[in-house]
Amino acid sequence: MEGALKEVGNLAEMIGSRARLLILGVLTPGFLLLCEALAVVFWTDISQQGALIAWLTKNFGSQSFALALLVMLVLAVSYVLGYISRETTFALSTAWLRQGWRPARYVSKMLEQMRFIYGSDKVDSVIGQYKVFELANHEADYKEHGLIRPPEFYVREYCKLWLRTKVPALSTDHMEAEINLVVGFIAPVLFVAPCVVVRHGQIGPYWTAATAVIALLFAVRLFYTINGVRGQETEEAIINFLYAHWEGLADKPKPSLRICKAALPR
Known about the structure:
Blueprint: H1 2-41, H2 46-60, H3 63-98, H4 107-118, H5 120-127, H6 151-166, H7 173-190, H8 192-198, H9 200-203, H10 205-246, H11 257-263
């Protein structure tokens, strides 16, 4: 019974974290993009917004129903925009890292640095047990072997999955959540620039230029930073993977349900 309750709690926690990630990483950035698009079209023309609600009320017969429909439409469009912008940003980031441009880091270089820090024997004693680490020797020709992603992806995902199932305390899910959250806001920050350019008459040419430049710089900086964090995620996953093996954390027996029952007072 206690084990079942624990599994239900873990499931609820996972669903809650996924829901938060969906709201903060997809829905919210999509809503910001939608607001920016509406700002370009309508700006603050309340009469046009009221005309839309009036048209919905006329065609659907009820203002409350029209407002509910409008809210659902906004949520749907926000989700689509957020998802597309997120996937597009990830694709651009992956293409950037695949070219080896800074701040990209190769798995072979990470392992070389870890050998220097922790000792070659300790590092090789662990990675030698897993064939996935041999991909570090194919970073230049991985496409010739039919791989659609760089070796760094497969090594990172294997380590993350191993840690998530064997030693959850060392999981790197927090970095994954951070990356997904920040990636979603790059496009809204970037599109501030065209918004202010289109409506330059509202704030003047100097403020328009300054705001557009600042928005572009912030977006570029966020994009560069997230590329670096993706490399840091891989490095942390490998280090935690090695540490778990050195300390034998995955081999330590977990308390069984029978032991837990025996420990309860009667």
